Amino acid sequence: MGPDSCISLLLRCKNIFQIRQVHGHLVANGTLQHLLVANKLLYHYVQHKAIDHAYYLFDGMTMRDPTTWSVMIGGFAKVGDYASCYATFREILRCGVTPDNYTLPCLIRICRDRKDLQMGRVIHCVVLKDGLHLDHFVCASLVDMYTKCAAVDDARWLFDRMLSKDLVTWTVMIAAYADCNAYESLVLFNRMREEGLVPDKVAMVTVVNACAKLGAMHRAMFINDYILRNSFSLDVILGTAMIDMFAKCGSVESAREVFDRMKERNVITWSSMIAAYGYHGRGKEAIDLFHMMLSCGMLPNRVTFVSLLYACSHAGLIEEGLRFFDSMWEEHAIRPDVKHYTCMVDLLGRAGRLDDATKLIEAMNVEKDERLWSALLGACRIHKNMELAEKAADSLLELHPQNPGHYVLLSNIYAKAGKWEKVARFRDMMTQRDLKKVPGWTWIEVDNETHRFSVGDRSHPQAEAIYEMLMNVIKKLEMAGYVPDTDFVLQDVEEEVKQEMLYTHSEKLAIAFGLISIPDGDPIRISKNLRVCGDCHTFSKMVSAVMRRSIVVRDANRFHHFRDGSCSCGDYW
């Protein structure tokens, strides 16, 4: 029997028993001496996860080529024996065999999946030593490995030196920046198109996700126009990503337009649209959409209820939220997890029902996490419940003693209560543990350029004009009845100093810059990395009325749409 007949026989094998029968036949007639046949048999053992049989065959082979080594490494990876993968790789090097552009990408993928950056760097050194750094497949695998291991700078260094890059490599690099530098992700997307590559749907979804993280509306509109011009079909994956993009860029109306255009929707699509309404404080629309979802025969899942309960929480729909929470198990056989309980603690806590929130926490039979206690601590801050705040803080510090946010939040609660000695104690604890408060920043995009402000910032080239506009606006607001709420200055200083500190919050500076830079009639859109403070919230409402400007603020929790002296959150956030 010739090698071709043997391979044909192997291809007809359906199970390990048949493969072993063929193995015995190959040994008996001597055909196993053909390397091609032995490799094919090894491959079949590996595909059936018969790793012991595979290694027995491998160990007895007198001849091996790069395919043999690659199949064996892949077999160990298939059963999760990564130590043997690396040991086999070391054996390759010890035998003086030069790994090829099939073996190396296989090993690199293992490092990628395990996020084993150390071994990935070792393999990169082997690539350089053996002169394979110019091989497209090897370099593309290394770029992918570095990005998945969060070594984006290493990935970019290698990416920039590749002689040729295919669409997959560009997409991998764009996706890496989407997680850590959304602006650079969009810059790369433009470069890719300039070099003549036409993005596919995977690339477009990656860019849409980057745009969502950036939160820049004009870029979202550009991406939307590009998708329409190039006739990309609005399938479930791309359409759902665009819903999320528009929602996070501040336009729930545009998100709904995409939703309505989609011919096919799955549960993730419905949940994303419900979540979009939740971000923007439009709880009733979220509930209406949920009922529409049920009427269409679509069954909700855990994510759907997280989105729905979040929407109820941020719109103050307490009774509705309680009903939906109860219906999870009673009507849909979905057991609430810690995320659902967190939404309920947030909903009850915001409404001042701290006793009910505490009872819910005590009764829950799932493991409590950081977000749950943070929700309770946030409610204690709103309603100035010191005793419960300390209990929540103790639980948080026990779970994550190295998170500076917990110390800052409790310190702020003490500051609002005027307990400055406790404030000082917590700040000393942060210093001793080398923990730093996350600084507050506010961003605004004007003419495709991002401008960033911190409190009291005077580094902007137009600082003089910004402060002049801010002081003029404050005078007009004071004439209309604005009084700075110095309770939001959590430092033990004189009242006049508190007012001066309030006047230069990063949100106010960004809005002042928007007033001198963005034409009348266009909304001013700003983003903040922390929760907007109460005084800046009042300031924004009054600016929208006195200056007749629409302002959209995206903070760490949600969106605020200020128009004609009121906010979409109804002062409930």
Automatic annotation (TrEMBL):
Cited InterPro entries = DYW_dom, E2_motif, E_motif, PPR_At4g14850-like_plant, PPR_rpt, TPR-like_helical_dom_sf
PPR repeats sit at 65-99, 135-169, 235-265, 266-300, 301-336
- Is Repeat included in the keywords of this UniProt record? yes
Presence of keyword Transmembrane: no
- Name the keywords, alphabetized: Repeat
In this chain the DYW domain maps to 481-573
One Pfam family here: Eplus_motif
PROSITE patterns xrefs: PPR
Q: What family, per the record?
A: Belongs to the PPR family. PCMP-H subfamily.
Name of protein: DYW domain-containing protein
Native organism: Stylosanthes scabra
